[in-house]
Inverse folding.
């Protein structure tokens, strides 16, 4: 299965931090193989989540000025291992990450200018080829006790029923800040409520539901056809992924799974308050709960 991770936005809500380091490389807690708490960049956790879901081919979409830094992080550094061989215990989790990288086909697509989430996804088309794939923004994390379950469930629905998109939504108090999804009940899948998606709107002033889309998706290749029809809006010519999804909804081939607390949480690190919540939640798991599998 293929996966796409976007690491291309400018991160203006996290300035001045993002003038020096990308928000996708903010640290979150995890538990190492030996049970000890460790810190990992958000994008590192996203990649491991995809691998746990069964992804073995990943495209990272990166801004041009950040390409060298991202490539360096996701490349096996044998010199690092040799330099610190005397302290093998400090390298154990890094070596485990390198084993993950050895099992992946990893590619880097460049987004020349920050023109929106949809534009970033469009730059992955050449590497995704013609099959289905899962997508996740690199500045958000799925916090699960069994890592990879949610993406695996979404991909399973997409492929089994030949859909064009499966969204992951959650109920929020103020939907005006999010992409809002409308839908009707359609049974359950993997223990989660399921919706037939009938509409979607980005940051509406009068939301028609409380279902907010997370930045985790499963798509057929048709999402790229929809993205090619879009023209950018606003001063930077941004292309919204929501507008492409709306085209797929019009054809009636989009479903959503409703995230329940028992299955996990979605946390974005795109704002200071979001990062604080993600850090606190992962710290609780790293220090006080059984280590997530995967």
């Amino acid at each position: 299965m293929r996966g796409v991770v976007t690491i291309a936005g400018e991160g203006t809500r996290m300035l001045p931090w993002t003038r020096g380091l990308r928000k996708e490389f903010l640290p979150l807690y995890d538990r190492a193989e030996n049970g000890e708490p460790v810190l990992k960049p958000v994008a590192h956790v996203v990649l491991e989540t995809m691998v746990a879901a069964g992804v073995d081919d990943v495209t990272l979409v990166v801004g041009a000025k950040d390409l060298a830094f991202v490539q360096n992080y996701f490349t096996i550094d044998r010199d690092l291992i040799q330099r610190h061989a005397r302290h093998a215990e400090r390298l154990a989790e890094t070596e485990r990450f390198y084993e993950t990288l050895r099992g992946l086909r990893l590619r880097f697509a460049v987004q020349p200018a920050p023109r929106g989430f949809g534009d970033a996804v469009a730059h992955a088309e050449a590497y995704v080829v013609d099959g289905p794939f899962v997508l996740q923004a690199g500045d958000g994390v799925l916090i699960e006790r069994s890592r990879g379950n949610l993406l695996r469930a979404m991909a399973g629905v997409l492929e089994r029923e030949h859909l064009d998109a499966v969204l992951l939504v959650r109920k929020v108090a103020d939907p005006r800040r999010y992409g809002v999804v409308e839908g009707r009940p359609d049974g359950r899948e993997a223990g989660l409520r399921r919706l037939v998606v009938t509409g979607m709107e980005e940051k509406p002033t009068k939301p028609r539901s409380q279902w907010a889309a997370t930045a985790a998706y499963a798509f057929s290749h048709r999402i790229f056809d929809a993205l090619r029809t879009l023209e950018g809006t606003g001063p930077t010519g941004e292309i919204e992924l929501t507008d492409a999804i709306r085209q797929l909804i019009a054809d009636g081939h989009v479903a959503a799974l409703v995230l329940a607390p028992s299955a996990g949480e979605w946390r974005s690190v795109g704002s200071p308050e979001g990062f604080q919540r993600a850090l606190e939640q992962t710290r609780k798991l790293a220090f006080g709960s059984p280590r997530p599998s995967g």
In short: The mean pLDDT is 91. The domain at 2-288 is CATH 3.90.550.10 (Spore Coat Polysaccharide Biosynthesis Protein SpsA; Chain A). The chain has one domain: 2-288. The first strand starts at residue 2 and ends at 7.
